[in-house]
Amino acid sequence: MNKPLNAVINIDVKPAVLVERLSGRYICKNCGATYHKLYNPTKVPGTCDRCGGHEFFQRDDDKPATVKNRLKVNIEENTPLIDFYQKRGLLFTVNGDQDIDLVFADVQAVLKKTQLACRHGLTVFKRVDLCYNVAVCAEGLPSPHFRV
Ligand SMILES: [Zn+2]
Q1: Rounded to the nearest whole angstrom, what is the distance from the C-alpha of residue 93 to the centroid of ligand 1?
Q2: How far is the CA of 13 from the CAs of 17, 20, 68, 98, in angstroms?
Q3: Residues 6 or more apart from 42 whose CB is under 8 A from it?
Q4: Residue 40 CA, ligand 1 centroid: distance in Å
Q5: Helix 15-22 vs helix 64-87: crossing angle, to nearest 10
Q6: DSSP secondary structure string, 66-133?
Q7: What is the Å distance from ligand 1's center to 22 Cα?
Q8: d(C-alpha 64, C-alpha 5), whole Å
Q9: Ligand 1 centre from 27 Cα, in Å?
Q10: Quick check: 31 and 80 in contact, CB under 8 A?
């Protein structure tokens, strides 16, 4: 794959929201049915839809403390990457706190924004590299032949 990187999309979600999303899973002790307190709760609170059981548990992986720790490590690892792409003008941040359809629409808008058409009718990408703009089409032709 010798293609240039055109855009890096950072779907930004507040840590507190992520913890809530990622630690919401719980499981019926009796039958193993899986629920999520936000996205897939039991129809009757505290009662398993499948077996009528009342006891639930969380896997260690899903517990808030574990999720928080995992996120902390993740943020530490990702911050240098975000800075790296930001400096090169390749980073686009999308608000991940909003509804999934809106996240998707924003991602599409970013992709559209980074796309240009070259005179060959190819869809190509505008690549911002360090301090100057370089656009390269799929044939590797340089920027002057672009209609922008
Ligand atoms: Zn059950």
Answers
A1: 40
A2: 7, 11, 13, 9
A3: 35, 48, 49
A4: 14
A5: 130
A6: HHHHHHHHHHHHHHHHHHHHHHTT-EEEEETTS-HHHHHHHHHHHHHHTEEEETTS-EEEEEEETTEE
A7: 21
A8: 35
A9: 8
A10: no
Per-residue pLDDT of the chain in tens (148 residues, 90 and over written 9): 566 677 788 888 888 888 888 899 999 999 999 999 988 999 999 999 999 999 999 999 899 899 899 888 888 888 898 898 888 878 888 898 888 899 889 988 887 777 655 555 555 555 433 222 334 445 555 444 433 3
Residue listed under structure tokens 């896997």: 59
Rounded distance from Cα 34 to ligand 1 centre (Å): 8
Cα of 45 vs centre of ligand 1, distance in Å, is 13
CA 45 to chain CA centroid, nearest Å: 31
Q: What is the pLDDT of residue 45?
A: 95
The Å distance, Cα 49 to ligand 1 centre, comes to 7
17 token code pair: 């929201």
Structure-token pair, residue 60: 């260690």
State the distance from the centre of ligand 1 to the C-alpha of 128, rounded, in angstroms. Answer: 54
